[in-house]
Amino acid sequence: MSNVPGNLRYAKSHEWVKIEADGTATVGISDYAQNSLGDITYVQLPKVGAALKAGETFGVVESVKAASDLYAPVGGTVVATNAALDAAPETVNGAPYEGGWIMKLKVSNPADANALLDAAGYSKLTG
Amino acid sequence: MSELRRTPLRDFHAAHGGRLVDFAGWEMPVQYRSILEEHKAVRRAAGLFDVSHMGEVDVRGPEAGKFLNHLVTNDVAKLFPGRALYSPMCYPSGGVVDDLLVYMRGPEDYFLCINAGNIDKDLAWMREQAAGFNVVITDRSSDYALLAVQGPKAAAIVQSLADAKLDAVKYYHFTEGTVAGVKCLISRTGYTGEDGFELYHAAADAPKLAEALLAAGAPHGLELAGLGARDSLRLEAGYPLYGHEITEDISPLAAGLGWTVKLDKGVDFVGRAALAAQKKEGLKQKIVFFKTGDRRIVRAETPVLDSAGATVGRVVSGTLSPLLNEAIGSAVVTAAAVDQPLKVDIRGAHVNLQLVKPPFVELKKTS
Fold it and tell me: Is 2.40.50.100 the CATH number for A9-108?
């Protein structure tokens, strides 16, 4: 039902990550997650420069219904955040894999990604 | 877990993409498309709400009016056939049993609308209070369905399907007539702060009426709206919700509903002595409404702090105003705290509360 792009990796806590060849990673929340949360009203972004371990909380996504912690799917240093979400958090609802990205990391340990689900595994989890 | 109760429109909701959740033991749509978009549609054009979970009660008999004036804090004697009244119903302590609408159909014939979560409690309370009055109380909750059409286009939409002239039905008045061929009690009331109607009708007719309203409303911009939007609309309008701004422990006076407490209506009523004492001695706690200038929602049960960081109350309702794009809410605080700077802690950040006299937005309610 929900959109699960095949080129991404997914955490069981519903974040997606796209790891580039240059060792940077883009992180957001899945279509399933945005749909479950409903209207997203606020995204608390991490600080650029913050060092995150895999599984560490890095922010909060709030909907009308609830506030949910965000967990880093892989460890690394925050190199960019999506400041456009301050004014338009609903972008996470409309485009969770594109305009709704939340942060970019310089990945410290690419092997962290091995613990994540692929699209088939995540589809099974959320199906 | 006990089975959720369903309104006659449960399949209608599912067919139209409603997200069904447990609300006070009822399987109800919290949203269809988006709470924020449904909210804006009601302010801009119109929304259609199924509120069939609400309870309905007939109160009939030679002393029906006298009984109701004993039961509730507002003045039922001011009613005439075709007139509706909002009132709290209190305990002797001045705390609130429920808030309700009283419709006068005739001198010995009244109709009440009560909150879904309070139906059993209210009926037991009313029957207990009715001792000594020549009155018959009948629970009609499962006989009736209730659809609300709310918003600036509501009158045009309902009129297009109604046999009665709705211009003649002013705010807090009602008439009996047909809408899309369905016999209705057509009440010009609502819970959104907009003009609109609440249509009480036989449960079996609900799917037919809902489809007809949706079809007639679509060209006007009407959207289906769920309980999520209903809650944000009522909060933006500054209306109380039972269990939040009014409870067994928060009196109508504390809630800012003094206009519904008629201490001088000429007859004694349940809670009068306690409410008169509260008024004379001053309130210990008050409901305040606030906005924050920040998008982070201040959720119910968040402690309210004074400038020294001491807890002086708690948030009772909180959401994001889709029109203001900032957090709005209400809190119960000590009377002494009302004139002081107040703040809350949201995940370690202090956010100041700016107290506001509701409504939070300009409302176009007419009549």
Answer: yes
